[in-house]
């Protein structure tokens, strides 16, 4: 029994009570007792309706919490994936450096061995003996310089060899540290993925409970109309708050782009502007899309709303100046925050089915001065 029926039931019962003839005190007492029973029944029905409404609100809050968790985890996963890619690049650089050092060490080792062998051969003749044998002063001078150069070269090569050994050891440590970082990041990534699966499971459970308590057509219609009124109120509030500080005129006014705006996501139309849904006129487009696909801004603007909204799930609203706004609903992830500036074609969200919807796709709408306009007339031909 809905609120409308309860609204009229009590006055009707009271009228019936007034029209009951009081034939006797016994009849009056019986009628009064019957009326009390009816009043109790009505009170119980009203309480059940109130409890059911509270349960529906609780389930909507659970759904909002689950979808906000999915949004946060998906953002963390994107950041972790970028970290892993950078660590892989660093790892490749360290491995290449290690290969170069090992090659240089092998060459340096061979050169040192040759110098040691040469010094050993020359060292078999004492320096004084060589001096006594040489009768040519110029040859003697060359021999002495050669010995000095050989000793100096050997010393330098040994020092360089030792430095390269230390550098190779440091490179091995860096590789080990990088491998440990990658392992830790992958462990975090796995934990985040498990958390995402749990959040999704919680969302599905909340969605199932929500669908269970929203079976009656009248309640569903009332909920849709209330959702629509709240959205209109939100847009009106945003419109008022921006009146004092409108966006600077863009190089190309939004109003001049009618029929030439890019599509926010590529896909077939699942629902069109003006179509009926449970007696409520649909004020946007529902565009089919792949889960997780990028949702892109149709024009330069500023983010004025980025949060969960009942009936529309995770919603992004952009203000384009001149009283024009674009709305993107049912998202899986929101990539921008209120106050952010975005350019045409920039990714602002990802496609999903948030808000308790079974179909995956983007809800896209355009408002001018707070009033809905047909987005199909503004988008370019697909």
Automatic annotation (TrEMBL):
The keyword Coiled coil applies. Pfam families: Peptidase_M23. This is Lipoprotein NlpD. GO terms for molecular function: metalloendopeptidase activity. Keywords: Coiled coil, Lipoprotein, Signal. Residues 25-118, 151-248 form a coiled coil. The keyword Coiled coil applies. Residues 1-25 form the signal peptide. Residues 283-375 form the M23ase beta-sheet core domain. It comes from the Bacteria.
